[in-house]
Amino acid sequence: MADGLERAYRDEWPAVVGTLARRLGDLQAAEDAAAEAFATAARVWARDGMPPNPGGWLMTTAWRKALDQVRGNRSVAVDQVPEPGEEVPAGTMARTIAGTIGGDDQLGLVFACCHPALALEVRVALTLRYVAGLTTTQIAAAFVVPEATLAQRLVRAKRKIRESGIRFQVPAADALAARLDGVRAVIYLVFNEGYAASGGDELIRTDLCEEAIWLGRLLHRLLPQDTETAGLLALMLLHHSRAAVRQGPDDHVVLLADQDRAGWDPALIAEGTAILDAAVLRLQPGPYQVEAAIAALHAAADSFEATDWAQIAALYGTLARLAPSPVVEVNRAVAAGMADGPRAGLAILEPVLASGALTGYAPLHAAHADLLERAGLADEAAAAWARAERATGNATLQRELGRRRSGTTDRSEKNLRRDVDPGGGPA
Amino acid sequence: MKYALLIYAAQGTSPLSGAEAREAWIAFAQAARDAGVLLGAERLAQTDTATSVRLRGGQRLLTDGPFLETKEHLLGLFLIDVPDLDAALDWAARMPHAVHGTAEVRAIADDPAIRALIG
Question: CB-CB: which of B84, B89, B105 is closest to A167?
Answer without folding.
Answer: B84
